[in-house]
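Help wanted!
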Amino acid sequence: MLGEGILKGLAETAKNFVGSFVSAERLTTVQYPEQRIAPIEATRDFPFLVYDGADWEAGMRCVACQICEKECPPKCIYIVKSIDKKPDALGKPQFYPARFDIDISVCMSCQICVEVCPFEAIKMDTEFELSRTDRFGGLLFDREELAKSNEHYHKIHPTEAAQVDARLAGEKAKSDAKAKGAALAAAAKAAAAAKPAVSTENAAAKPEGAEIKP
Amino acid sequence: MTATHKLVAFESDKTRPDDWNRPQVIEPDGDAELLEVAMGPHHPSTHGVFRMDVALDGERVIRLKPVFGYLHRNHEKIAEGISYLGSMPFTDRLDYVCPLTNNWAYALAVEKLTGQAVPERAEYLRVILGELTRVQNHASSIGFLIQEMGASGTPLMYAFREREKILDLFEELTGARMMCNYMRFGGCRVDATAGWLAATRKVVEGLPGFTEEIERLLCSNEILMARTQGVGILRPDLAVNAGVTGPMLRASGVNYDIRKVDGYGVYNRFNFRVPLGDHWDVYDRFMIRLLEMRESIKILEQALKDIPAGPVMDSKAKIRGFRPKPGEAYGRIESPKGELGFYLISDGGPNPYRYRVRPPSLMNLTVLEDMAIGQNVADVVLIFGSVDIVLGEVDR
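Answered by r_m:
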């Protein structure tokens, strides 16, 4: 019969129309500024710099190694390494970023900076309401704007942040143990004679000679 | 508007061999004046910036010249200047409707280049994500096709309702709905939790209902049949010669599915069929996509049942700072639009020496003129919609 297919389709749309009155899960519209959907934990948009403690400048984890700057696909990160060093969380003297700028208008939220960072210093934020009245400078974030506390990181990505904290605590314990071991070794070395140093020198000289031979 | 009484073949026609079985260049009736219309670059049917220069005799299309390149972003040249890892997020932006299959093809090419193994769980996750991508691509493709026919929105909204559920799954796993950047050389970036797999199972359970709904809504609709059956016929020999792949080729009755031919990943473990068309028209392309969605759901059910435990990243895998040995590799997959391939040449450096994308959308677009000649101008929009292109991939 001609028109049968159209009637079948109309029945389907009617079913969907009535269904939205019956089942609440069909009403998916959210009145955005007043109502908000609960954020999904894995969500990412733009990077921020993590700092420990209360002072962002003192507690910043970034050591200005510039790996993220090199790996960033759209090249939106700009880092100037400091000249002096300051102690990091482990107490080791480290460089720090004298300048750390991210152009948010260029960033494409790919998370590669987070993946390549060996110091857990840069993470992805979930803040998306970033509209600015200034067209150029407003979205160029400097390190003060980028710095956010570890508590903020825990708030937006709880599972991931807990894993990161556990890893960092493990590293700290290891480095403490190593420092202890190094102190002991130094003491032992001081007690020992200069003999082993000579033998290492010989070992270092050997492969060089072998290389010249052929 | 220019008037021509005698048609001259396009320059490109001269370079093509005669045995291509292209439709004969048709002559306008009598001494009619040809009307040249530029459809696009901002025509609503083009899903982006794409222009079709059509010459019309009344309603009939006498010739059609596709013009693209408006969205050219220098993807291949950029990739040659940055590390292998750096290109991964850019591949998301090729075919932005199905980012995960793009990731997969690129990861496959680099893995071939470096000889990197992939753990089994990662392979299963790739299959699950690839098939979810296929379902949502075909759903939205059907929706857009029907919208171009004039059904302003209803099937598209139904398709997008389903797509939304799948995109939520993507966001939960990868952190982004469309620009996922999920796969890595030697596995996947993060592992799927048991909760995510349960949520995926729930979504997959609901998908057969959606395909049935689309079938009830559209398949026997007289208007749809009248508009699409016998329109835009693509002969199998021309399809093969022009390098058309994917649902377009299968709608022309050629049994060629890279999931079956190559069996990349773990596809040879799943039981699924390849639907083929026998009328080679727009309706067949629409039906093939619907049937492929059903087969994808079958694969999803099997993969979600069999997914093993284990790591998702090979322990030897390096995501950055590696230098593949000099050589070349071509990784290809059956993306929802056809054969998506990445060709890489390494000269031993940290960047690829040559990086080439074989985009299915562009190759499928080459037969647009052949399908459109002799058809009505309103059907050109429909034929174009049935090719299912994404301009991000055509222009790169």
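OP: Thanks! One thing I noticed: Chain A has a mean pLDDT of 79.
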